[in-house]
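Re: your question from the hallway

Yes, I did run it. Sequences:
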Amino acid sequence: MPLDPEGREFLKRLFARLSEDALMPGDPLYEPLYDNPDTGDPVALMRDLIDVSKIESFQLFSGFRGTGKTTELWRLRHELQALGYFVIYADALDYINPAEPIDVSNLLMALAGAFGDELERQIGANIAKETVWARFMNFLETKVSLKEAAVKIEAESPAKGVIGGGKASVDLRVELKSDSPFRQKLKHAFETRPREFKDQVNSFFAEGVRQIRKAKGAETRVVFIFDQLEQMRGTLESEEAVIRSVERIFSINIDLLKLQYIHAVYTVPPWLKFLVLPNVTMRILPTIHLWRNDLGRSRDEPSWTAYRALVHRRLEESGLQRLFGARPAAENETVDRLIEMSGGQFRDILRLLREVVLRSMSLPSLPTTPAVVMQAVNAVRSDFLPIAQEDAKWLDIIARGRATALPDTEPKQVMRLARFLDTHSVLFFKNADEWYDVHPLIRGEIAKVLATLPERAV
Amino acid sequence: MALRPEEGATAIEQRYGTNAAQEWERVIHHFDLAEGFSLIVLIVPDRDGAELCAAELERYLAGRGKLLRRLQPDDPAALRRIALPLLRTPAEPDVGAVWVSAVVSHAAPDYEDWMGAWRWALATLNQQRNPLRRHFACPLVLVGARWLVPVFREIAPDLWSVRTQVVQIEPARELSEAEERVITADPDRDRNFDRSRPNSADLDLALEAVARLRGVPGQEESLALVLMRAGLALSAQADFPEAEHSFRQAAELWLQIGAPALAGSTYNALAGAVRSQGRVAEGEALFRQALALKEEGRDTAVSRGITLDMLARTVRDQGRPAEAEALFYQALALKDEGGDTAVSRGITLGELGRSVLDQGRGAEAEALLRKALALEEEGGATAVSRGITLHELARAVRNQRRAAEAEALFRRALALQQEGGGNAVLRSITLDSLARAVRDQGRAAEAEELFRRALASAEEGGATAVSRGITLDLLARAVRDQGRAAEAEELFRRALALKEEGGDTAVSRGITLDLLARAVRDQGRAAEAEELFRRALASAEEGGDTAVLRGITLHELGQTVLDRGRGAEAEALLRRALALKEEGGDTAVSRGITLDNLARAVRDQGRRAEAELLFRQARELMAEGGDRH
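Structure:
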């Protein structure tokens, strides 16, 4: 006999609170997991750096999938707005094709396009378009003598459209995202006249800042958050080329990305971390470490407290009691088991909790049963399987050494490690040091795979 | 309250069992609980399974006034391009879910193309993760085979990271398709047969469980499962009577429980056990029952194909090759539809080839058998299995009188059987066939050696009396070919005794009798030979042998009677012989020889002119046939 209607409604309400969607600042479901002296609050660190950098700043921000980057960036935006900053937040994927190699001219144009569009949206079309874009397009048309590009622009009116309004923004995005002649000419322009190109870009942004201060106040400070750039990874054919292109930009052309009078925060692919790039500092959102980097993986109680609080916030006391049985959350073994199996990844804890809720629908009554919890853990574990033998060897090395054990920085190896991190097979932690470990759900599976091999990993 | 029609849940449970039904419930619960976009990855065993799940979801959504929007790419190229049609799919309020399905077995012939298409599609969808989430306010269900999961993780990590559920529908039947093949195999002839399966320890545990569960209310399903396990273990030990008993009990329980698909699988196993005991007609009836139950239980196409294959073999065993051929074609169609493995399809194709060969269509059989072999090689079939197919191919080639080519193929078949550790009976059959091909080329001494080896293998493997009798008969011919009539006679007598002991057909016994008579006549014992020829003829007529072969025996009888000076009687016999040979379309040389003897019989009665005419006709016939005799 299935659960009664009231029970099903209860589970439905719980389920809705277990969504993995990014949370807007002030959302009651948000748990400040990073409010931890051990790891430091990355948003606070970025905010403070902006605050102490009076004129402009440049920060790279990243995190592996499911660590809450977007939620934290939204929080950053919110806190900066509360401090009086004018914040422009844009989605890089609206302007860049993540499957294709990118060059700095394209990225600069994308930054400019995003900045200009958001400016239009927040301040108003006339101010943005008539001066800012017009000047930039004029540069392309005249100074670079790109007659073909000019004709193209003329015919298809991306420039005119930009000046005129919305439609052309879409056209310009299309031009930037496709391997169009316009992009080619842009690249040519940069290569043949790099300084002028950069001057035009600087001029563009400077004009933008002027417009903002005109509208919002002379002391207004501007922050530009360019999100989703970390999605640059390429396709099956283009992966290596994309990686090389991103590496090139951030090793050779990084200074070109710094915007005058603007505090810029770009999200970047986390695998950049594994390439030794001079003068590049990235702030990476770590996984909350439920255990310490010692041999026995002893519990980190502050992190456990934070996670229990997260579960409590999502399920609420009444939900916890009804779903798992009447006892305080801090003493609930079942909840602790799920937290432990999450590895400190909150997408995984949410997934585990959702599985428990879904499977509990088939019970005749609540609370849920140990069998249901076990099935939920097994279901989430199965998402990691199968584990290839070669992967098991590497993962074992990581688990033993608590380090990446990256053999070299060739794209193939870098992406392989990035995949481990993106799929949460490997977790990235940070307290005093940075370290890595293997997800608790698959430690046993790795051992099983290795047991079948003639030689164990060293 | 969620609408979950009992009929719908039962369909998945009927086909795949309770665990699969519970997994499917998770999908339905998700629809009960969640709103907005979500990504569900659904893993199913085959296309049948995908269709079944789609139908269930459609029914569920219809109950809530919603539609299931299906995108089902017909070919890999369409799958590669799926992102655009997907994003163009209208996000109408009445759409309850969007379904993208491309389920392809790892063993499918175009698996590589589909794998490449999925990789491309997922990579493209990965880039469209956010647009997808913005576009659809309902779940997106991506449906594939099990191999899709690691591909998805690797190729589309962004999309994978926002998955809501991964649901795997897997059959939980105790009797897997592989086991079905094992149990229903013919241990003497079938390449599927593998005695290295459940051992006595498993049997002990199964029997212990049976004892514990018998009579316990509410445990019928578990009891049926352990009874099947016991049956499997017993079959593996070739204890077919006990296996039969176990399977019957299990089948009864499945029918009581109302699980027709599982009952069908059990009947399939039961039929195999019965067939293995030589009760072929009864086996046929049980296979038909198994098929009916599987159809009632909406079992997979592959599973039904397996049963049809076994039914066809049983029909062929009873000497109905044309009927078997039609059944094999049906089995093959189902296996293709269900995306069965290359090896499995190859085996059925090979059995079909054998049926076609049994009907004398050598060239057609050869083409089928070559395709079968290619499939088996592609799929990595065992050496023994490939050896059996090669053997049949060699037979088809020999049937078309290409003896040297056939010999080479038989030798390859034998090597494979030896490499794969095939049983002695199988080896004996191939050795026998090799020896025939060698004898066809006039190498009697070599053929004799091979026949002796075949016989030794047959005896070692415990082949049937009929089988050993056939090989002995052929050995005797090779010995007689070398002029050792007395030795040949003794071998023919032994062969005949075995054939009679084994209940061989009248036709087969008649052939051996004919050859025995020749060996006796070779030693000058004409009276005895005449009696044996009469017995041979009676046997051939009783068994309804072909006109040509009856004509040949009549010719030999007529010649023997003629040699004993009874011209008129010989004439009548030889005229009958000639008529039969003409009726059966015998070769010109053969007819010429009979005409020549007829001419002698006529001449011996003093009718010289008539005899002269007959002699001339005989010479012309033999010349026409290329004989300068």
